[in-house]
Amino acid sequence: QVQLVESGGGLVQAGGSLRLSCAASRSILSLNAMGWYRQAPGKQREMVALIISPGSTNYADSMKGRCTISRDNAKNTVYLQMRSLKPEDTAVYYCYGGTGSFGYWGQGTQVTVSS
User: Fold this and answer.
1) Sheet harboring 18-24: ordered strands across?
2) Where does 14-93 have alpha helices with state H?
3) By Cβ atoms counted within 10 A, which residue in 66, 79, 91, 102 is the most buried?
4) Longest dimension (CA), the chain
5) pLDDT per residue over 74-93, tens digit each?
6) 68: enclosing H helix or E strand
7) 61 Cβ contact partners less than 8 Å away, ≥ 6 residues apart
8) Would you say 4 and 77 are in contact if contact means Cβ atoms under 8 Å apart?
9) Type and span of the H or E element at 37
């Protein structure tokens, strides 16, 4: 069992940057797939970025060139650096971690991008 806790959300102006953090309660070495998803009100939850062992990454088309996912195993933490943010990026952002047999979700952190 592992708990995931997101932080770093908040209010930012369009064109600004934000870095989200996801801290795990234990080692993330067993979580071969970690990533970020987001959900806006009335919308389906969608993948933003994934990092998959041994180190490949996937990004949503709408975010390519505007975000970078990374992980720090020593700190049991995954990051999402976002830049050139747009109002349509406004959503609750959730951290995900998967072992191949089990999946875990964080509680979410709100990101609001103003015009």
Assistant:
1) 4-7, 18-24, 77-82, 67-72
2) none
3) 91
4) 41
5) 999 999 999 999 999 999 99
6) strand 67-72
7) none
8) no
9) strand 33-39
